[in-house]
């Protein structure tokens, strides 16, 4: 992992030992949805492993923070694309991806948000793009709530039921699992469209 990103990752993990860890989780989820590079899953997993009985409460905190952060990303794209939005795209070198996302929004609308919200795809680019492309804010919020909630509550359920053993599995296969889920989700909507 790139050295400064690795330091950020380690710093995020260190927050698990802080007495205000749930607040840190909320703020991390908020920031990641609009500009921060480290996903909240890292801290959610660390906190939930500490007390598996709190996993679902922590997933709720993460979901709320992420959806509100997504709305902040939407606001950046809607009202500040020429300044803050461009700066974020510059920092992460997401200009090419942003143009591809434009095509996804034209073709798939809220499903683009839902897939990005669940998978490791950089969600922040989709939140900013939703505002820049003037997507209906309520549809955006619902797609974000559904996809982010599904992602974080799935992690909470796995930790609650399988404990520390699931961490290695999640770390090793997270990208493959989310890709599989995305394929199943797209297949489901293709079947509905053909019905």
UniProtKB/TrEMBL annotation:
Domain VTT: 39-159
Record keywords: Membrane, Transmembrane, Transmembrane helix
Protein's UniProt name: Cytochrome B561
One GO term describing the cellular component: plasma membrane
Transmembrane segments: 23-51, 58-81, 110-132, 176-194
InterPro entries the UniProt entry points to: DedA_domain (IPR051311), VTT_dom (IPR032816)
Pfam families according to UniProt: VTT_dom
Organism: Sulfuricaulis limicola
Keyword Lyase: no
